[in-house]
Amino acid sequence: MFICTAFFMHFLQDLYLCTVVDFTRLQYDKKVNRSAKVKFPENELKQKTGSGLQSKLKSGSGQETKPREEMETNIKTEKEKRKSIMKKKLIAAICTAALMTAALTGCGSNGTADTTQTEAADASATDTTAEEDTAADLSGTISLAGSTSMEKLCEAMSESFMEKYPGITVTVEYTGSGAGLESLASGSVDIGDASRSLKDEEKAAGSVENIVAIDGIAVIEDKDNGVTNVSAEDLAKIYKGEVKNWSELGGKDEAIVVIGREAGSGTRDAFEELLDIADSCAYAQELDSTGAVLAKVASTPGAIGYVSLDVVDDTVTAVSIDGTEPTEEQILAGNYLLSRPFVMATKGEISEQNDLVKTWFDYIASEDGKNVIKQVGLIIPE
C-alpha cells in the first residue's frame, strides 16, 4: 500500500512540473506575440519613412510586411502544437490516474485483507491464551469412582492432567462400575467410571454416558496351556460349565478353572453380555479387580479368565476367538468380538458440570489427553 502511494505521488509531481513549464512557455509566447504586433504603428511609419512607404505597406506591395506575417504565422503554429501536446498529456494523465487508482484500490484491498487476517489470528490466539489462563487459575478437587479396569487409564490421565493444572486435585476410587455409578447417582462423586455401556435404568436416573476410550476384553490362560484359539460358542460353554476339561478342545487332559470378576464389575457385565451368558456363569472363583484376575490365572494351571486388553503382559497367554487375535487393529476393524467402551459418566450433560469437570473433559479430548489414551493401550473413540 505504501509503495503504491509513493509511486502515485511521484507521478503527480512530475506531471505538475511538466504542466507548469508548458503553461509558462505559452504565457511567454503570448507576450512575444503582443510585442511583435505593436512594433509597426502607422504614425511612426509616417514619421520615419514618409507617406510613400506607408502607402506601400497598406497596399501590400512593401517588403517589410512579410516578416511580420511570417512571424505571426509561426507563433500561431507553435501555439497550436503546444496546445495539442498539452491535450495529449492531459489525456495520458487522466488514463494513468485511473490505472493508479485501480492499483491503489488493489493495494488497499490486499492490505485490508492482510490486516483482517492478522487481526483474526491475533484475536484467536488471545482467546485461546485467555481460556488457558482461566483454566490454569482454577483450583479444587475432581472426584471419580468406579471400574477397576479403568485404573491404568485414570492414573495416567490424572497424573498428566495435574501436571498441567497444579491447582486441581483428581481423586479416583476403584470400586467397580456398578458402585461407581451408584456414587454418581447419589451425588458423592463428580464422575462415575464404567467399563461398559450404561443401562437404561441408569440413564433414566440422570446419568449421561461419555465414552472416553474403547477397550478390548482379552481372554487369558496360563502359559503352559496349549489351546491358543477357541470359538465364541466354546467360550460360552466353558463359562456356563458345559465344557470342563481342556482335552475337549484339543488340549491336554486338565480341568478348566473358570476365573471371573465379582458381580457389579463392568468387565464382567460386558463379557457376559457380549457372549449372551448373563446370570448363567459357573465361576470357580470371583475376584474384585483386574489385577487379581491376571495374577490368579498366571499362577493357576488350567485357569482361564478375562481382563482388559491393556493390562495383558507376558505372564499369561491371550487367546484368539474364532481365529481373531485381540489387537487394536482387529477391534477397529470390527473383527474382534469382545470389545467395550470406557465410560466416564456425569449427572447431566458435560456442559452442565462445574468448571473443574468441564476442564477435565476438555483435557481428555485434547491432543495431550489422546496421547495418554494411546500410551495405555486403549483406542480413541471415533
Characterization of the model:
It is a single chain. The protein has 382 residues and is α/β, with parallel strands linked by helices. The protein is 55% helix and 16% strand. The chain has 12 helices and 12 strands. The strands form 2 sheets. Strands 1, 2, 3, 4, 5, 7, 8, 9, 10 and 12 form a 10-stranded mixed β-sheet that branches. A two-stranded parallel sheet has the order 6-11. Strand 7, helix 8 and strand 8 (285-287) form a beta-alpha-beta unit. Helix 1 runs antiparallel to helix 3 and helix 4 (151-164) packs antiparallel against helix 12 (367-375).
List the helices and strands and how they pair.
Layout: H1 2-37, H2 42-59, H3 65-136, E1 140-146, H4 151-164, E2 168-174, H5 177-186, E3 191-194, H6 200-204, E4 207-208, E5 211-222, E6 229-230, H7 232-240, E7 257-261, H8 266-275, E8 285-287, H9 290-299, E9 303-308, E10 316-318, E11 320-321, H10 328-332, E12 339-347, H11 355-365, H12 367-375
Parallel strand pairs: 1-2, 1-3, 6-11, 7-8, 7-9
Antiparallel strand pairs: 3-12, 4-12, 5-9, 5-10, 5-12
Task: Throw out a few tags for this protein.
382 residues; alpha/beta; two-stranded parallel sheet; elongated
